[in-house]
Amino acid sequence: MTVDKKWNAIAADTDERMAAAAPFIGKGKEVHPDNVVPLLEAVIRAGDCLNIEGNNQKQADFLAECLNKVDKGKIHDLHMVQSSVPLASHLDLFENGIAKKLDFAYAGPMGARIAKFIREGTLELGAIHTYLELFGRYFLDLTPRVSLICAYEADREGNLYTGFNTEDTPVIVEATKFKKGIVIAQVNKIVDKLPRVDIPADWVDAVVESPKPFFLEPLFTRDPNLITEGQILLGMLALKGIYKEYGTTRVNHGAGFLAATIELLLPTYGASLDLKGKICTHMMINPHPTMIPAIEEGWTEVIYGPGGEVGMEEYVVARPDVFCIGADGTMRNNRAYSHVLGHYGLDMFIGGTLQIDPWGNSSTATASRVAGFGGAPNLGCDAKGRRHVTGSWLKCGKEFPQMEGQIGRMPRGKKLVVQGVETFGDKRAPTFVEELDAWKLAENAKLDLPPVMIYGDDVTHIVTEEGIAYLSRCPSMEARMAAIRAVAGVTEVGLKAKPEETKRLREAGIFKTPADLGIKREDATRDLLAAKSLRELVAWSGGLYNPPARFRNW
Amino acid sequence: MTVDKKWNAIAADTDERMAAAAPFIGKGKEVHPDNVVPLLEAVIRAGDCLNIEGNNQKQADFLAECLNKVDKGKIHDLHMVQSSVPLASHLDLFENGIAKKLDFAYAGPMGARIAKFIREGTLELGAIHTYLELFGRYFLDLTPRVSLICAYEADREGNLYTGFNTEDTPVIVEATKFKKGIVIAQVNKIVDKLPRVDIPADWVDAVVESPKPFFLEPLFTRDPNLITEGQILLGMLALKGIYKEYGTTRVNHGAGFLAATIELLLPTYGASLDLKGKICTHMMINPHPTMIPAIEEGWTEVIYGPGGEVGMEEYVVARPDVFCIGADGTMRNNRAYSHVLGHYGLDMFIGGTLQIDPWGNSSTATASRVAGFGGAPNLGCDAKGRRHVTGSWLKCGKEFPQMEGQIGRMPRGKKLVVQGVETFGDKRAPTFVEELDAWKLAENAKLDLPPVMIYGDDVTHIVTEEGIAYLSRCPSMEARMAAIRAVAGVTEVGLKAKPEETKRLREAGIFKTPADLGIKREDATRDLLAAKSLRELVAWSGGLYNPPARFRNW
Fold first, then answer.
1. Which residues of A211-231 are buried (b: 16+ CB within 10 A; e: fewer)?
2. Using the beta-carbon criterion (under 8 Å), do A136 and B455 form an inter-chain contact?
3. Is A322 in Cβ contact with B139 (below 8 Å)?
4. Which of the four, A24, A349, B271, B449, has the lowest number of CB atoms within 10 Å?
């Protein structure tokens, strides 16, 4: 069938671009590295919506560098849509006049540069998203016209193997290719036979073997050496006061030190509370090295996560009952599906933050850094569309006195969303503040709203060295604010706590001190950690865990 | 590497099963239809978690029938996990003693039989889910051990083409295969060369060419002939009082007649309100035939949806700028990604329901039917993890006076969730009731919670022939209940409305009658429909739309 031109503009334009690119694409869709810049100049047009696979961990770094070398007389005003922008080359595009607008989820080390670029007018911010939100928009109003992706290997037909670090590749390729977009892949190696096919060849337009392997960041490796007694106290409070209290089996842990601490306390303090088999049996996490002792001790049945973790490849392959492994024997974690699970299939999210305001809104944004929140908003919110029941979810919903004000005489559960923080963080900066720095950032960076990571109405518990605020048990906003003051220590927020009010909260079980939970501060020592160093984690793994060089001091 | 047996139970078990299946699987993974029953007996074990691809539309019906023929002495107590159970064969499994437990999202015509089976102890209900919630759990705690899927075609290696009706296949296969599960596909035809690869061969274990093409249900076809003037009035109210009021560009429409009516009013009444290009430019829907006139008139830039629609194949292919089309020229809609978009990337969901309670909770459950809700809970809830801003979302959030009680002095947007209902539905049953039938069903079917489709705190607007209740503008639960009474007509709920209170709500803009909106009831005639019959839709499509025989009366 010949389609009326009126309805076929996108495909016609794609055909034109691919015709211009034809001289640079050889057999098996292969492109010589030297031809990547002219290839990009052939397939990209000024103003295009463009994705460079910028994941949480793996990066299409060679393609990003090549894009910086195109003729900016021809290619400019690109609208970049990508999960993460952690590489200098991602931001160079704006300085070089090639890109103009950015929609993203996580910036990591580039947060300050983004804020600066926005102030100077070098970069127009679309929005900060959570990953799944951005992925959804790829299919509707932020569809990449061209995507520059990365994979471990391609075969001679252009099939791709993304293996242990699959991450965002499937969702980027599907959104791009099924809207007649163009997909260009950098791979570490072109081979005759792939271990398995992760992306079919007919979804890919061009493949380049990059001069060096793609950049891969070990973002979820926490050195147990650096865990403090303060964090251990928080971990004990959380395990006894929340994990045990609610019997929470399906959990997500963030990347912070508190999560690592809790993971290392499971086989020790957790076992002393008789929690094995009763909590953390199903986890949505990357393969955290600090989970190794708990896995070895049989705490966790299933782990599915958004990505991989450098050094954990062999360990994961050797524990196939726990991790999700393909027929070829290597892991495939799909970030999109993992966050679907993280949103709907879990009973608890626990993570940290930089600042919490008097109502419980929290953010990691500062006045001069557009950091983004990655997966936290999706994981750390109540999934209102959830309809299946677990004990943990139902208990939290039943004790939530504000429920009747929201839905009348109708029962419903609630996800546990836990913030674990010390009242003063790095450089003695207070965690509890009267106003989030996010407000100043909104002003500086001309944002429509202050970038809040987790809103107060989603937070059910705050854990500090002062104890636990059970916000889900608060009958009113006033009680909630009082409970937050009670755990806020000697910050400006905490100093407003009224002893009489705090006493009433303790009597009502809304605020619990370590003593109320039967936990002695002096028991919170590093002796409780199942492993005190990465070297001990390697030992726990039977030598299967292979930490990246920068974490090795032996 | 040889993996310690202790950690390799699943793969070892899979190997055993596949060894037993080997005699039935030929070259290219092909299985003769006569060998499917022994194949299933080889690969399935009693107590397995099993998926039969039961989608919203396409069904692996041949494999479902074969499963009913296995030796139930060997295979019993299966735990079925699947989106939809609309076929008799799905339920026969329980009657035949082969299956025991069910986790699902949508039952359609089987709702009454499920309720009966639960009462009789023939079926143990896990939970009713929304699609995306169930998909998420496939990766954690409801992973199918064996999945019986369907596709249009396979090639000689076992690659699959799911084409225009891709639906759930990708997410089922990925969850199953990457946990060492077994994937068996029924296809309509085995061919030498596929139009494209939707599922790579190494993700599939066996392929059978079924004796007849898979069953496919045209679930989203609404005959304009059956649209009433009452529905047209509701459509006019919604378009002027909500779509226009909020300038809502990114919308999901449910499958009901109200959605079809609104779609057919766009080129007529919508145009008279000068709304072209201002609303419904981006839609997350199946390819609804009733969208044809609006598409032809250039209202909608992009449509992405959860599935296909029988008869719309040629039309969709001829409008590639609007729909998501692969390089081969046929559509691929992936239900999982579509619902991610539907949750996070839209500003409005509009749908109908059977019953609404005084607090605004709604359900399509009745006392004796476990119907399930499909995608509605996911689409019809506020996406709390959303962080990007649109005008529509921000406006609804800013006018929501209860926001401060939830998150303090912090702005946030809100998704428009609209219920459009007549105060009395089929057989004059009242839509507004003091207590949802869901409560009786919960008792009858031993559910933990009454199955609510959309909770009251997510609903922002209710539209009836009495007018619009702007629930998002209500300062309290009392005001919300009064606004619901105001639109509830002469139902038991509506009869409790107090004239003085209703008057105050009108003054506050919380309740608007048709007259308040400048809409005359007598103008709501069928003349406003852009097409009054399926035949006229065919004409609008230039003959490209090909309605299924059962809808043709010419």
1. eeebbbbbbbbbbbeebeebb
2. no
3. no
4. B271
Which phi and psi (to 5°) does residue A272 adopt? -65, -25
AA letter at B229: E
For B379-420, strand residue ranges (E) read 416-420
- Treating both helix axes as pointing N-terminal to C-terminal, what angle do A131-138 and B335-344 enclose, rounded to 10 degrees? 110
Which residue from A minimizes the CA distance to B404? A477
Question: In this structure, are strands B362-363 and B355-356 parallel, antiparallel, or unpaired?
Answer: antiparallel
| Nearest CA-CA partner of B146 in B219, B275, B49 | B49
Reading the block at residue A80, the tokens are: 């970049």
Residues B204-250 have pLDDT tens digits of 999 999 999 999 999 999 999 999 999 999 999 999 999 999 999 99
CA distance B350 to B373: 14
A and B: number of Cβ contacts within 8 A = 335
How far off is chain A from B359, nearest CA to CA, in Å?
6
pTM, two decimals, is 0.98
Cβ of B455 within 8 Å of Cβ of A141? The answer is no
Q: Residues A44-72, buried b or exposed e (16+ Cβ, 10 A)?
A: bbeebbbbbbbbbbbbbbbbbbbbbebeb
CA A63/CA A40 separation, integer angstroms? 9
Reported as a single tens digit per residue, the pLDDT across A265-304 is 999 999 999 999 999 999 999 999 999 999 999 999 999 9
Q: Å from B411 to nearest chain A CA?
A: 7
Calculated CA dihedral for residues B500, B503, B509, B515, nearest 10 degrees: 160
Contact B386 A377 (CB under 8 A): yes
Rounded to a whole number of angstroms, the distance from the CA of A142 to the nearest CA of chain B is: 10
- Determine whether the interchain pair A388/B282 forms a contact, defined as Cβ–Cβ distance below 8 Å: no
Residue of B nearest to A357 (CA): B408
